[in-house]
Amino acid sequence: MVEPFRAAALARLAEFAPRMGRHYAAGRNSDPGPGARRDVSELSAHVRHRLITEEEMVRAALSHHSPQAAEKFIQEVYWRSYWKGFLELRPQMWREYRARADATPITPAAQAAMEGRTGIACFDAWARELAETGYLHNHVRMWVASIWIFTLRLDWVLGAEWFLRHLHDADAASNTLSWRWVAGIQTPGKHYLARAENIARHTLGRFDPGGELNEAAEPLDEPGPPPAGLLPPADTPRERVALLLHEDDVTFWPEGCDVVAVGMLPAMRPFAEAALADGARLAAARTARAPEALAPTDAARWAAGLDAQLVMPWAPVGWCADATASILALRARRAWDEECWPLARRGFFPFKENIPKLLRSLHPPAAPGR
Ligand SMILES: Cc1cc2nc3c(=O)[nH]c(=O)nc-3n(C[C@H](O)[C@H](O)[C@H](O)COP(=O)(O)OP(=O)(O)OC[C@H]3O[C@@H](n4cnc5c(N)ncnc54)[C@H](O)[C@@H]3O)c2cc1C
Question: Does the CB atom of residue 172 touch ligand 1 within 6 A?
Answer without folding.
Answer: no
